[in-house]
Write a structure and sequence with these properties.
The chain is of the alpha/beta class and 214 residues long. 20% of the residues lie in helices and 30% in strands. It has one domain: CNF1/YfiH-like putative cysteine hydrolases, CATH 3.60.140.10. It has six helices and 14 strands. It has a six-stranded mixed sheet with strand order 3-5-8-7-9-13. Strands 1-14-6-2-4 form a five-stranded mixed sheet, with helices on one face. Strands 10-12-11 form a three-stranded antiparallel sheet.
Length: 214
């Protein structure tokens, strides 16, 4: 879409090491005083953003303001980019397993529909995140998802394909499958490129996602 840009800053970006979002935003040609981002809590809460600033206790941000720059941070959870070239609405969603289990993407799409978006013109990008090869979960997690999205792990544990769950949810909202792009990179596998909470625990860094219009 002309004018819309989405960025995902990986592990070894010089600026991203300190999570200096203002500097990152400036490095991509945006005005950092227009930055808006959430304090994430692994929820399914989505908020419409009208002005720059920090939004407390949510995991999805949607806006139709072309001067706003949105951002989230991830380290295995899915960064979901959304944009509608017809209305100018766009969004960023932090979709971890909790948010995905409670269908945060539907809430984001519902907000875009309320703002006048047609699902036929919404495009989605499922960014780098942990893949099924590394996402082993117990029954407390796997039981919250259809078994079609899991394969057997060790004992009662399952290997969950969270990206496929999210894509399925997006299609159920009405988004065309051909308008959904899935980045196949696994953040847990690729130590040289990505931070991973599953791999490194509390000491893990974070990647930064940025989206906006130019």
């Amino acid at each position: 879409m002309e004018g819309f840009s989405a960025y995902f800053v990986q592990k070894h970006g010089d600026i991203s090491a300190s999570d200096n979002r203002e500097a990152l935003v400036e490095s991509f040609g945006y005005d950092s005083t227009h930055l808006a981002y959430p304090v994430q809590i692994h929820s399914n809460k989505v908020e419409v953003v009208e002005e720059p600033g920090i939004i407390q206790n949510i995991d999805g941000v949607i806006s139709d303001k072309k001067d706003i720059v949105l951002s989230i941070q991830v380290a295995d959870c899915i960064p979901l980019f959304l944009a509608d070239g017809q209305t100018g609405n766009f969004g960023l969603v932090h979709s971890g397993w909790r948010g995905t289990a409670s269908n945060i993407s539907k809430r984001a799409i519902d907000n875009m529909k309320k703002a006048g978006c047609d699902v036929n013109t919404i495009r989605a990008l499922i960014g780098p995140a942990i893949n099924q090869c590394c996402f082993e979960v117990g029954p407390d997690v796997s039981d919250q998802f259809d078994s079609v999205f899991s394969i057997n792990g060790v004992g009662d544990r399952q290997m969950l394909d969270l990206k496929s769950v999210l894509k399925h949810q997006l299609v159920k909202t009405g988004i065309k499958p051909e308008n959904i792009k899935v980045e196949n990179a696994c953040t847990c596998c690729q130590d040289d490129l990505y931070h991973s909470y599953r791999r490194n625990g509390e000491k893990s860094g974070r990647m930064i996602a940025i989206a906006g219009w130019k």
